[in-house]
Design a protein that fits this description.
Largest sheet: 13 strands, parallel
Distance between the termini: 67 Å
Number of strands: 15
Order of helices and strands: EHEHEHEHEEHEHEHEHEEHEEHEHEHH
Structural class: alpha/beta
Strand order of the largest sheet: 1-2-3-4-5-6-7-8-9-10-12-14-15
Number of helices: 13
Oligomer: single chain
């Protein structure tokens, strides 16, 4: 036990917290503590209080607390004690609901001098009031189902240090007739000031337009962009929007566009012409995930002798998701992809894609398509 570094505790209604026994599982070598309290609050609070006052963990750098009961029990005061006692925490994950002490918890988290990664889940309370100099060392922020604290957190993190941001927006925010003047637009406007952001992962289940999110073009060093817009979102991207992205993000290596994530008959698929724009504008792309319509009707607009798109040799993986393709358009699409991305190594699709057999054929014949284009 003396070399133990990581521990996870699940505290339920059937477990009495024995502090003497607990000490055997928390030697001074522990750096990572993960607590899941799924029972009554008393045992969870006893454990957290012991962690704050009685357990000597001088090397603790990662702390995760999840309250699994519904409704969530209030452990905010106990979490605050832990944060006060362990100032060396570098990674913090919290899913504690709308604690009465939540403002104090956030304030203390923001004062941790070494905190580099902060993750907050399932908070639907009021906006937070944080100190101006909060989160001085933060590099990575993940907000899942925490829409109401989105902007109040984003405006307090150091814009010059943040390199990774993941956020899920589910709860409707106050609406406005002007899509560029909503709280969500304000959040994206703040994100646009993160000059060294490398990874941006956005999951939308609310109304949003390009006018809402276009501020992210200010993240000039972006290398990974993932956007998922589910049925609750009306987000639509035009070819001109992709052109702007390609020009704003010359270093982008991974692009995942999961718009209207559904295989329902009314689902709108991107046109094959969108891929031509991506091939033209994103010159360093290595991984692309996109859902589009590649059936003969949509590919007939292309000529195989069209040389307007120079070959891009960087792309190695194409995930076509639930993209549509039929037997009539199979060779045309295969040869188009081969002319745009001759170094492509892998084409994948969802296992229940009705076009999976055709996409497998495109993958199997890819080398021959390249040879035909060279003839």
């Amino acid at each position: 036990m003396q070399n133990l570094s990581s521990v996870r505790f699940e505290i339920n209604r059937k477990l009495e917290v024995n502090l003497e026994l607990l000490g055997h599982f928390l030697p001074p070598s522990v750096t990572d503590v993960d607590v899941c309290a799924i029972g009554g609050p008393e045992d969870g609070q006893r454990f957290l209080n012991a962690l704050a006052t009685e357990m000597k963990l001088p090397r603790l750098s990662s702390f995760s607390i999840t309250v699994g009961s519904r409704p969530k029990k209030d452990v905010g005061a106990s979490v605050s004690r832990v944060l006060r006692s362990h100032q060396g925490i570098e990674r913090l994950t919290m899913d504690i609901g709308n604690s009465h002490q939540i403002h104090e918890v956030f304030r203390l988290a923001g004062q941790l001098p070494r905190l580099r990664h902060f993750e907050m889940c399932n908070y639907d309370g009021e906006a937070l009031s944080l100190d101006q100099d909060s989160f001085p060392a933060l590099e990575s922020l993940k907000l899942a189902s925490a829409s109401h604290c989105l902007d109040s957190l984003l405006v307090r993190v150091p814009s010059e240090k943040i390199t990774r941001l993941e956020m899920t927006v589910e709860d409707p925010l106050p609406a406005s007739q002007d899509p560029s003047a909503t709280p969500l637009a304000d959040s994206f406007r703040t994100i646009g000031t993160f000059t060294h952001l490398r990874v941006l992962n956005v999951h939308l289940e609310v109304e949003a337009t390009w006018e809402t999110i276009h501020h992210i073009l200010g993240c000039k060093e972006l290398q990974t962009f993932v956007i998922t817009a589910l049925r609750g979102s009306s987000l639509e991207l035009q070819e001109s929007h992709l052109e702007q992205m390609g020009r704003a993000w010359p270093s982008l290596k991974t692009l995942r566009l999961q718009l209207h994530d559904s295989d329902a008959p009314e689902t709108t698929y991107l046109k094959l012409s969108y891929l031509r724009v991506i091939a033209t504008e994103f010159q360093n792309l290595r991984t692309l995930s996109i859902k589009f319509d590649a059936r003969a009707a949509s590919s007939s607009q292309f000529s195989l002798s069209d040389s307007t798109v120079p070959a891009q040799y960087s792309l190695q993986k194409l995930d076509v998701d639930l993209s549509l393709i039929d037997e009539e358009g199979l060779e045309v699409v295969g040869r188009l992809l081969a002319s745009w991305w001759p170094n492509l190594l892998e084409i994948t699709c969802r296992y229940y894609n009705l076009s999976a057999t055709h996409w497998s054929a495109v993958q199997a014949n890819y080398r021959s398509y390249i040879s035909q284009d060279k003839m």
